[in-house]
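#struct-pred

JT: dropping the chains for the assembly here, can someone run the whole complex?
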Amino acid sequence: MFFRDIIGQNEIKTRLIRSVKDGRVAHAQLFYGNTGVGCLPMALAYAQYICCENPLDNDSCGECVSCKKYAKLSHPDLHFVFPIITKKSSGNDGSVCDDFLPQFRDKVLEEPYLSLQDWQEALQEEKKPIIYTREGEEIIRKLNLKAFESAYKIMIIWCAEQMHEACANKVLKVLEEPQGQTLFILISDNIENIIATIRSRVQQVFFPPIDDEYLRDELRKRGLYDENAEFYIKNARGSINRLYHEIADNDTRTYYFRLFMDLMRGCWNMNETTFIEQWIPLLDQLTSLGRTSQIAFLQNSQRELRENFIYNLNVSNLVYMNREELDFAQKFARFVNERNIEQLMNEFALAESHIDQNTNSKYVFFDLMLIINDLLKK
Ligand SMILES: [Zn+2]
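RK: done, full complex below.
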């Protein structure tokens, strides 16, 4: 990873490069900020720069033996600690991070801005991965190894808040005693869950949300800057990870939005003709969705209602709608007002909980449609 690959965060880059040039690299640091703001890629670029044999003014050389190994994240003096899942429910099948290292390296190389949730999905696990007690002993074992090829050994602890308490206590002990040429970089998007004694022993580096202009550049570079780009950027709130999830989720959201639009239009009119031509097909469509999709649809609809209500306030920076949603809101938003918003939201939430409790979805949606028909006229 190179500093030039990091999106935004220029101040931090400059500060870290400066610290290497001045020879005052703090031996334990904590990079923290929201998911997807670049703590992990920055740690990798920083580590590579520290170990580079011919560092340039602002970046690693990319040519030396060390850089070549860093390009594959396979430098022998670079160690990773990250959450895993052991197969036994007792959490004691002897697995350590190194058993998952090839998979972790591939994932990070493919997606350096990855989140814990992305990693959990890559592991195909339902439980949240953690850093087990056993890993504490591994950390100490690795500290006792001599540095093979660099002046520094670098240990990156990703998602440090996921450390089991016993492991965290081992790390704390290690941090209390200076470890020669070992640099610890802890990374977290939730530092409240890291024990205070560790937090007080590391140099903390806060990563703010990435400026929108860099997210915009990133989308342009990848040919993804389309009519919805500003909507994605707004929802990303400075996170590259969230930006790409927004884009990936777009198809599903569009599907739910169009269904919501049909539902609102259909519910507006209730007479014999619309009942047969609109209500019955809508009901069929809604009941044919699986339960999970029905719940997702109802949640998405609550978001649409809220956005339409806010749209009426005429404060554009509060509205999080894409082009198609905005077009619909122009005509629809005025039907969502302070007389019905609360009840509409409650009814959708109630329908959601009924579906969740396995109530027959045909009844749930039919009741909901009758209520919408009534409420939209308030
Ligand atoms: Zn180099």
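JT: nice. The pocket of zinc ion is lined by residues 52-54, 60-61, 63-64, 66-67 (CB under 6 Å). The mean pLDDT is 93.
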